[in-house]
């Protein structure tokens, strides 16, 4: 259709406007216009799209489930904080056409290439941005504007020489292939070419044996190196002639270095690589706090989008605060605050509908509603017991998917619990369980700042309103407690009364929840006991009640003593969530990471404050040469024409003795291809717990540096050698093709 596809753009149950949507001829831009006025309302680039969700996978579309079938509905999710776009097509066929088409367009961007191998789609995108008069040609003035947009402060004479060299037609403008030539010259990687020539005898190609030498000497690939070299040539060499001769050109060499095999992140650790048959308490588990909130803790919005985003991010422990609602319908919100409310039924439905396949799942089984390993639900029922059980129905006697009730052996494992939903909560069995409130355990006032956190937690366990006295509460609890108790099989919530008490009276199937301040006090006073406790029982840590802005505490200090469920506010970007994403980006992103052996031993001597207590080899040295950067993004909300002055900071997060940070000098006015060539060195006493965070900032002489990009990973996942680091934004999304080029060495 010339004018585009007519679809409904939906913002709420009552706001459904018909709009024409059309993919432009450049295959990079989509615009939509009003059916009534014909005015183009907005446009977006394919490069802005993170993913496309099918069906009722948004709060708005779920509210319209009875009116429109899922086959006609889909959601476009953008990078960053831009709101999702919910659409309803005229037919299932039209919906599939758009869904599959968009997915095809965004798929090639997983590991964008630079220099001569940069994708033509990416080049075309830059051309469209710079071609202001839309005549399909670019004059030198437009090229100068493009350089500013690309974060390049280039000498005008040099820019003109590149322009004239690419202008083969001598027309004074660049068109099509001429612009591609200009872009290739602009993105020439001298540091990579120099490395290539160090191993190439003729300076034009790497023979199979020369490539093997490079892989062994620099990349430290010591197993099946010849086979790997052949695979890399077949996969990344663009020239058929070179492939036939088992050789790698300079273009193919760059393509390899920019690929997953050339990434700092060990590709073998991207997939499921750890033993999943250990007891549940032997794993760190990706966990969120008040998952339903997407803003602050007092007046913020509650949304099923919070659950969708957390699940897509690999979270395996969600929180649900359930309260009595109108007409017998339980509602989820942050009790005794002004946050908005969502029906509990929608939350349960979302958990069954969100498609988030795990790469580690056997072929043919992907596409299950949940990642295969168990999902833990931390449920707090503020007077909503009967309503909640009514919604849960028969699922409480199964794993949530029709499978039998979960096993209750002390050594129950993630492997045994695949496709199960475990409900964490109170369970009848001891008197104190029946008398405690429905929320987290009431904390010790003496352990919290001015008792404010304790007061916040007390407010969370209050229920009811005027006329709701102790006797009424007890009567209601007696009638509902058994039904809720039956939902809890493995993660029975118990109050923490000390390590000795827990060792004497608790069971491996039980779990205690601690506020961050209480946990810090235990870390200071009894670090080794805390590690031993976490070797046989689950511990959940949650944020201080004073964090009403949804800020986060550092998860690292909690992981250092083996706490498994360290709940963070996923909606708040920052270092803390970078660490969380960094730790759980491995092992197929399944949300479970196996703890080091010395943290799984109930008799361990390890104490994070004394790194010498760790059994095993001595400290190791991590040496990082920061070589260069490529196409770094501009700082958000910067002035037109502003060019960044980038520096790189490397941070080590781990036990106290390993905490460190070092940074390079800043490079003036070059965000396009800065060269640092600086070496940073760190000593790690407990590398098994270390996370390495690379941060790029825009240096500012008069105020705080501005964030540009970051990448965080566990030390165990680092591949030595010459590696690219593909940067992420503040909220953890990719920002192609921005990257760093580094050389990594690890020694004892």
TrEMBL record:
GO annotation, cellular component aspect: endoplasmic reticulum; nucleus; plasma membrane
Span list, region Disordered: 386-416, 429-473
Biased composition (Acidic residues): 434-455
Entry superkingdom: Eukaryota
Annotated ranges, domain PH: 1-107
Domain (C2) ranges: 600-729
Gene3D superfamilies: C2 domain, EF-hand, Phosphatidylinositol (PI) phosphodiesterase, Pleckstrin-homology domain (PH domain)/Phosphotyrosine-binding domain (PTB)
MF annotations from Gene Ontology: calcium ion binding; phosphatidylinositol-4,5-bisphosphate phospholipase C activity
EC number: 3.1.4.11
Substrates-to-products reaction catalysed: a 1,2-diacyl-sn-glycero-3-phospho-(1D-myo-inositol-4,5-bisphosphate) + H2O = 1D-myo-inositol 1,4,5-trisphosphate + a 1,2-diacyl-sn-glycerol + H(+); a 1,2-diacyl-sn-glycero-3-phospho-(1D-myo-inositol) + H2O = 1D-myo-inositol 1-phosphate + a 1,2-diacyl-sn-glycerol + H(+)
Name assigned to this protein: Phosphoinositide phospholipase C
Lineage of source species: Eukaryota, Metazoa, Chordata, Craniata, Vertebrata
